[in-house]
Structures are given as C-alpha cells and as structure tokens.
Amino acid sequence: MTAHEPAGDPAPVRSPGELFDLTGQVAIVTGASSGLGRRFGRVLHASGAHVVLAARREDRLVDLAAELNGLPGNARAVAQACDVSDEVATRALVDRAVAEFGTVDVVVNNAGVGDGKRAIDETNDRVRAMLEVNLVGLFTLSRQSATVMLANGEGSIINIASVLGLVASAPVQQAAYCAAKGGVVNLTRQLGAEWGRKGVRVNAIAPGPFPSKMMSFVLDADGGEELVSSGVPLGRIGRPDDVAGTVLFLASRAGSYLTGAIIPVDGGLSTHG
User: Fold this and answer.
1) Which residues are catalytic?
2) Which of 74, 97, 184, 210 is the most buried (most CB within 10 A)?
3) Distance between CA 13 and CA 188 in Å, rounded?
C-alpha cells in the first residue's frame, strides 16, 4: 500500500454501464453529417447523451437527428448548420446547445478538411483555409464551449487530430494537413494543462487510416487500400467502432483521469513512423 492509498476495502467497482453512462449529458459533435462524426453522434446518443449535431450539410444532419429521435430512450438530438471556420457560427452552435439542453458537457471537435497536395504545390490561400478549419476553428469552438464548462467546473473536450500530427506522411504528401494536425496535438496538451485544475479535460485522438471522404483519394485508387494496409502493423485500415469507443471513453467517467493525452488509434502506424 502506498502512502496515499486509503486503508480498508477499495472503492466499489463500477459496472461498465455506470462507467460509460452519459445520461443527461449534452454533447456537441462537429463534422457529424458523415463518416466518423456521424458514428460519434450515434454512439454518444446511444450512451444517453443529448447530442447537438453540427456540420455544413444541414440536410444530412436533419435526417440523422430524426433517426436518433425515433429511437427508444430520453436522449434527444438536434441539428445545427455550422462552418467551424466562422466564429459567429460556432458561437451560435454553443448557444443552441445551451438553449436546447441547458449546458455543454462534451465537445467532439471532429470537423476537418484535407487536400492531399504536395508541399511544393500548395498555395498560401489553401494552407490558410486548411488551418482555419482544422486548427483555428477547433480552437475557437474549444474556447467558446469552455466558457460554459469552466463555469460548471467540469467538461470534456475531445479533439480529433490524426496520426499525421505525430509522424510524417511519406507515401501521401500533404504537408499543410500534417502541420494543422500537429498544431491540434500540442494545442490539446496546452489546453489540458490550462483547464485541468478547473475540471475541464482536453484530450485528442489521433486516428490512422479510416474510410472517409477525406481518405477516398487514396483508398479508392487501384490497390490503394492494400497499399495503406501494408504499412499498418495490424494489417488493415480502421473501422468506425475502433475510434468511436475511444470517444466514448474520453467523454465518460471511465476517462476522468486523463487530460492533455493524445491517444493514437492507428493500428500501430505511429509506432514505426
């Protein structure tokens, strides 16, 4: 027993249902109209959270919200059109969550863009546009939602970074994307340090290759998926639930002692970058 370990019986073991229960929590998910963001919204809702689904394509959000609201249970879903590079739109997103549900407990910063351009072919306008969505917009929404969380003394911000924020992208040259995601990685560490003592946790997930619109230019090419999989120690690209479970972990009581952490969910790709 260590000097800080309490005497007597340990605390009761919580059931998995208790550890991962989000009943009554309010979660914002950006980039929720497709791909991983859509799955994140479903998983958080299934765990009991009210979800505010945000993306530029409101039509797909409305369909998803209707689907979730048709399921059994008390958790609700609402759709909000939002371009995360527009700070007025992100402020309206936070305001909508508070107006509908009274607070913000969880934010999943998932919205992102990529272009697969070589560094030599990039233009400053394209680089700025990518940084505005992938880094500046994420930072803006984090600050805006943190005003609510800090006042409550608790909250969880989950940034979707990328394995390309940890290692270079040699086969697919996309320097601007790597720079933006590298910024997300260190911003996560800094915000985790700044806000942790006030009860707000900030962590990031660094996914490897997953099927998505952003990865389609690689995976849909002849032999593309096989080429990408050959560089992954687990020998395959990711499946949506591989990373959705990590989002749930960080959002829930199960992840309550993590802040400033970067969790690679990449099949081992970053271990030999």
Assistant:
1) 177
2) 97
3) 30
